[in-house]
Write a structure and sequence with these properties.
The protein is about 0% helix and about 0% strand. The protein has about 30 residues and is low in regular secondary structure.
Length: about 30
Amino acid sequence: MKTVLCYGASLTGGYNAEGGRHALPDRWP
């Protein structure tokens, strides 16, 4: 099994470039 590490990417639930947070359906599952 492989492991994927998401470190600080915007899709980990951070902020988008236009301000505010990404919508819940757009975040990493």
